[in-house]
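Deadline looming. Please check this record:
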Amino acid sequence: MDAAAAQQDALPVSSDALLAQLDAWGLPYTLFTHVPLRTVEEAKQVEAEMQQPGVSSLKIKNLYLRDRKKRNYLISVEQDREIDLKALGKEIGAGGLSFGSADRLMQNLGIRPGAVSPLAMITGVAQGVTFYMDAAVQEVDVINMHPLVNDRTVVMAREDFLAFLARIGCEPRWI
């Protein structure tokens, strides 16, 4: 399945609708359009164009996980952070973590593989997905993330991202 903007009309909340909602809430962002990105390595190839001198940014990777009790999690961490699922499970109190299927990803976060993003909590909150965010976000100026598709990236100020989470009723847990 393609996770690019051309296919966004098949999502519960399209990328365009998400961006319009951010605008309506007065939450500024800078939008970049690029080739579809599916991996951290691919993202690193286009990140230089998004970097602003003197502005610290958090570039993240996102994991959609389920535990053996069938609880769903979105984990967003610094892109180079090593993740040991067993250790992560202990840290968050979730045993038997594994990656969720593409079908569950669509059902619970309204996105396709390759476009996983904390902005998907706009759907995830109502589905009971628990969101964990890297505590490093509290020390940066901006966060880079996909707006529900993988051929766009938004760069948002930390405060605006946290305001977005508050607006949708999502209280992040920090790891």
Summary: The chain has a mean pLDDT of 92. The first strand starts at residue 30 and ends at 33. The CA atoms of residues 56 and 125 lie 28 Å apart. DSSP finds six helices and eight strands in the chain.
